[in-house]
């Protein structure tokens, strides 16, 4: 199919100046470059930043997004490039849709991934609806992921730079959302290219460090956040082995994660022991040898399927899956149970698979993402 020269870079059959695009601006270098790039190309750019959590506390915290200092940075970029910028107070929405579930999941012994829920329930839902209310033709973000047109419509693909790829955190993007979203940075080969563009546009955030932590979790200390939200959460209990034998005591299930070895306080038992299960209901931390962490079969629900054929149209799908953002995709077989539930069999077992994590589906060859779901109970 020959390239249609009438389409602008965002895929619309009109001039850039006649195309309105809302850019979701976190205040970081990535979304700032997207906004500047589109403004330079002549688009009708509108910047929108979400205030997601306590403004005062945010001012004292570096390395996060959607906070006080970052809102200020986003506004400065908009002033530099000359486009309107709005700040929307989404604190209540964010707390109800993301933070509260994070607390409940953690208390239940799961390992939640709140950044996925934020994309799913706030940025690609409420913010996307706001973009449509502003009569924007599309919404652009600074995520490192690609949107490509296939035979059945827009497809989700991994970023060109595997070190920056954010596909694990965006698997729940629906086909309807994908038709409206744009990801202008997904094709770049490195973050260095993004920073070079920021310098080219003279952006005040060109040298700003990347965000590292979950925005509402200072220094990665999940337990401190849970204790603040649920003061009675740090109840002490027993550390037991797989047979139920008591090996020691703990100061609260919320201080432990699946696969943890250090800090258990039960040394001198002859072999290294790892956390293999968190029994929040009985306030027990279950430990065992490393081989007890191995998982081959994973129950998955809330599946968002992005394949061309219906999910239940065949009994098995042979794909690659990723059960943690830091791990490479590995071969697996998906067996649908319903349109939104499945059993995933890993060809090679993996360690440390935990409820609350995502299981993301990838094509065996190429960069396409077939969606994914949530791991919802233990092995």
The major β-sheet equals: 6 strands, antiparallel, barrel
**How many angstroms separate the termini?**
47 Å
Q: Give the helices and strands as they follow along the chain.
A: EHEHHEHHEEEHEHHEEEEEEEEEE
Helical content, roughly?
Answer: 10-25%
- Spatial extent as radius of gyration: 22 Å
Q: What would you say this structure looks like, in words?
A:
It contains eight helices and 17 strands. It is an alpha/beta fold and 379 residues long. A six-stranded antiparallel beta barrel has the order 12-15-14-13-16-17. A five-stranded parallel beta sheet has the order 3-2-1-4-7, with helices on both faces. Strands 9-8-11-10 form a four-stranded mixed beta sheet, with no helix packed on it. The longest helix is centred in the first third of the chain and has 20 residues, at 114-133. It is globular, with a radius of gyration of 22 Å. Residues 55-63 have low confidence and may be disordered.
What is the structure about, briefly put?
With 379 residues, this protein is α/β, with parallel strands linked by helices.
Keywords:
379 residues; single chain; six-stranded antiparallel beta barrel; alpha/beta; five-stranded parallel sheet
SSE topology:
Layout: E1 20-24, H1 29-40, E2 44-51, H2 55-58, H3 68-81, E3 85-89, H4 91-107, H5 114-133, E4 138-140, E5 145-150, E6 153-158, H6 175-180, E7 181-182, H7 191-200, H8 222-229, E8 237-240, E9 246-250, E10 274-279, E11 284-288, E12 294-305, E13 317-322, E14 330-336, E15 342-351, E16 358-362, E17 368-375
Parallel strand pairs: 1-2, 1-4, 2-3, 4-7, 8-11
Antiparallel strand pairs: 5-6, 6-17, 8-9, 10-11, 12-15, 12-17, 13-14, 13-16, 14-15, 16-17
Helix pairs in contact: 1-3, 1-7, 4-5
């Amino acid at each position: 199919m020959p390239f249609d020269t009438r389409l602008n870079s965002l895929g619309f059959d009109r001039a850039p100046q006649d195309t309105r695009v809302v850019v979701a601006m976190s205040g970081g270098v990535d979304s700032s470059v997207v906004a500047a790039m589109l403004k330079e190309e002549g688009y009708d750019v509108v910047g929108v930043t979400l205030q997601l959590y306590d403004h005062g506390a945010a001012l004292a915290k570096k390395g996060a997004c959607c906070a006080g200092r970052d809102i200020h940075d986003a506004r400065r970029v908009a002033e530099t490039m000359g486009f309107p910028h709005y700040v929307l107070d989404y604190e209540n929405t964010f707390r109800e849709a993301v933070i509260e579930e994070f607390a409940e999941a953690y208390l239940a012994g799961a390992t939640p991934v709140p950044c996925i829920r934020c994309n799913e329930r706030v940025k690609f839902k409420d913010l996307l609806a706001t973009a449509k209310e502003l009569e924007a033709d599309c919404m652009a973000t600074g995520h490192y992921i690609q949107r490509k047109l296939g035979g059945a419509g827009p497809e989700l693909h991994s970023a060109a730079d595997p070190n920056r790829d954010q596909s694990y955190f965006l698997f729940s993007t629906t086909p309807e959302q994908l038709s409206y979203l744009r990801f202008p940075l997904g094709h770049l080969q490195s973050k260095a290219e993004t920073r070079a563009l920021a310098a080219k546009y003279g952006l005040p955030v060109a040298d700003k460090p990347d965000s590292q932590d979950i925005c509402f979790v200072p220094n990665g200390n999940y337990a401190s956040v849970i204790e603040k939200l649920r003061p009675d959460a740090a109840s002490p209990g027993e550390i037991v082995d797989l047979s139920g034998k008591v090996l020691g005591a703990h100061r609260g299930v919320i201080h432990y994660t699946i696969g943890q070895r250090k800090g258990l306080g039960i040394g001198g038992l002859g072999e290294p022991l790892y956390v293999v299960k968190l029994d929040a209901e009985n306030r027990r931390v279950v430990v065992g040898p490393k081989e007890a962490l191995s998982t081959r079969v994973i129950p998955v629900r809330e599946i968002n399927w992005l394949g061309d054929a219906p999910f239940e149209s065949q009994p098995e799908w042979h794909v690659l899956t990723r059960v943690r953002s830091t791990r490479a995709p590995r071969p697996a077989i998906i067996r649908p149970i319903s349109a939104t539930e499945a059993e995933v069999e890993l060809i090679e077992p993996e360690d440390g698979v935990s409820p609350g994590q995502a299981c993301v589906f990838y094509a065996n060859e190429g960069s396409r993402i077939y969606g994914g779901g949530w791991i919802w109970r233990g092995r």
